[in-house]
Amino acid sequence: MTHTQKRIVVNNVVMVLSALSALVGMGFLFWILGVLVLNGIDALNWAIFVNEGAPPGYEESGLKHAMIGQLYIVGVATFFGVPLGILAGTYLSEYGQKAKLAEIIRDISDIMMSAPSIVIGAFVYAIIVAPMGHFSGWAGSVALTIIMLPIILRTTDDMLNLVPSTLREAAFALGAPKYKVIIQIVYRGAKAGILTGVLLGVARVAGETAPLLFTSFNDNFLNTDMMEPMASLTVTMYNYATSPYEDWQKLGWAAAFILSMFILGLNIIGRIFLLKKRGK
Q: What is the CATH number of the domain that holds 57?
């Protein structure tokens, strides 16, 4: 067998193994989604969206309190995390560039992206919950903001760096100040990529449970006061799914289905914007 024939055989073997690995991974993915969809749809009904939590055995029990609490906590985290992440990414790309401080920030951001979320939850517990003496929705939002921030920061930095420098130079040659160049030229050229990073960041924090156990904790009733413990869909799902009561377990499946479809939808939208940015 010649050297060329050996390379062809090895290439075919690697391609077959890679394809089989991809099929196995996709098989597990569709298996998980299939079980989730079957159990989630079976437990889903209109009462879940209009009723609050109730003790086991009560028919008028739902997830309204958890969904509203989730919107509050994630919404506040998004309100603070998105502008902070975009501005920090703008500094790295447009002002810091190859400076030593910028490289340090990038390294710290990469470390934070790989840090376990439960560690972030314990950190926020130590600096906010323990001094305050009680759990709160604000503490949960702070934890999610910390998790979201490095994702948006790095995505913004990468997307702005993809904008051709010739566009900046042309705008500078016409006498445009730097802030106008960034807002009207650079942001417009990278808006699809930045939006993708925002959606992926929100999708990441929307499914977090561990940091909320340390910060916002939970509440089985509707509460919109961010200074008090607040229900969230993730923690409620965990509590209901691990309970010994059948009706609560069904609510846990419904919460898992709602949350998974929301996160899946955000990821799909983010991928669509990313493909649009690449011109596909």
A: 1.10.3720.10
Helix axes 187-206, 246-277, angle to 10 degrees: 160
How does pLDDT run across 130-182, given as a tens digit for each residue?
A: 999 999 999 999 999 999 999 999 999 999 998 998 988 888 888 889 989 99
Asked whether residue 166 falls in the same domain as residue 259, the answer is: yes
pLDDT digits (tens, 9 = 90+) for 234-244: 999 999 988 98
Range of the domain at 159: 49-277
User: What is the residue-wise DSSP string for 3-67?
Assistant: HHHHHHHHHHHHHHHHHHHHHHHHHHHHHHHHHHHHHHHHH--THHHH-----TT-SS--SHHHH
The DSSP line for 85-134 is HHHHHHIIIIIITT-HHHHHHHHHHHHHHHS-HHHHHHHHIIIIIHHHTS
The answer to whether residues 112 and 248 belong to one domain is yes
- Work out how many domains the chain is built from and give that number: 2
64 shares its domain with 22? no
Judged against a pLDDT cut of 90, whether residue 219 lies above it is answered with: no
pTM: 0.88
Amino acid 205: pLDDT: 93
Distance of alpha carbon 225 from its chain centroid, rounded? 24
Distance of alpha carbon 250 from alpha carbon 38, whole angstroms: 11
Does residue 113 share a domain with residue 223?
yes
pLDDT averaged over every residue in the chain: 90
